[in-house]
Specification:
With about 250 residues, the chain is an alpha/beta fold. The chain folds into 2 domains: about 80 residues, Nucleotidyltransferase, domain 5; about 150 residues, Nucleotidyltransferase, domain 5 (2-Layer Sandwich). About 35% of the residues lie in helices and about 25% in strands. The protein is globular and about 55 Å long. The two termini are about 20 Å apart.
Length: about 250
């Protein structure tokens, strides 16, 4: 079995694969101060008896400070460190970003999985801590895209910086005109994020001169997609599938 690890700013997501099939996915809160021992216990606890069946693992990380501990934890559990997904991996496409090392590993994994699903050109909108729009053109060149605050980050920032605003869970608003602080926040963040991604996509379409298929992913995608005009397809585990695909092709 194969274990994909997506180390993000907010969560560490794990995907256990048997061949191309995702058997089970988990996530736990990312925490810089966790030791390799703690991480090994967490991962082993989630996998249970299946920990002995894992033969290979790969990691896509956007948090350099946490990466060594997670790699050491995997080495202890599986007998060797996980492969690393980054711009030097065999991605199946060319990175046209400058410099290539600045592209987040999760964005590269998203692009690899999207290309496997629908081919080129393709666009991925990933609603994680950051909202990223990722564009691969007809030549299978990853061009880049856009980075903006994600919906949950926006809610958290408003709670922390505005004294009279409550902490609100992300959820669909009843209407654009919120009749309470809770509904006003949900309207602004959810409908605002939908309008933001629609506006970005319209500009991308004009620059490309065509309308490639768009795949949405990330923890907040299910809340945002129903309110966006240009988002129809959700693939919640896109990044995990991309990590598997890149590792199979030869991640370093």
């Amino acid at each position: 079995m194969f274990l994909a690890l997506d180390l993000g700013n907010t969560h560490v997501k794990l995907g256990l694969f048997r061949g191309p099939k995702l058997v089970r996915a988990w996530k736990f809160a990312a925490e810089v101060r966790r030791t390799a021992d703690e991480l090994a216990l967490l991962v082993a606890g989630l996998l249970g008896a299946r920990v002995r069946a894992v033969r290979r693992a790969a990691i896509a990380s956007v948090v350099p400070a946490q990466e060594p501990g997670l790699k050491e934890a995997c080495a202890r559990l599986f007998g060797r460190e996980p492969a690393v997904v980054d711009h030097r991996s065999r991605l199946g496409f060319t990175v046209g970003y400058e410099p290539p090392s600045d592209v987040g590993a999760d964005r590269l994994a998203d692009a690899a999985a999207a290309l496997a699903l629908v081919g080129a050109p393709v666009i991925v909108a990933d609603f994680g801590t950051a909202l990223t729009v990722n564009v691969v053109d007809r030549r299978r060149v990853y061009l880049g895209g856009a980075i903006a605050p994600g919906p949950t980050l926006a809610l958290d920032a408003l709670f922390r910086r505005a004294a009279r605003l409550p902490q609100v869970a992300l959820g669909a608003p009843r209407a654009a005109v919120g009749r309470s602080s809770l509904e006003s926040l949900r309207s602004g963040v959810v409908l605002g994020s939908a309008a933001l991604v629609d506006g970005l996509l319209e500009r991308v379409f004009r620059e490309l001169g065509e309308r490639p298929p768009v795949i949405a992913t990330g923890g907040a995608a299910a809340v945002i997609v129903p309110h966006a005009r240009h988002l129809k397809r959700i693939e919640p585990d896109l990044t995990l599938h991309g990590i598997r695909l890149v590792a199979a092709a030869g991640a370093r």
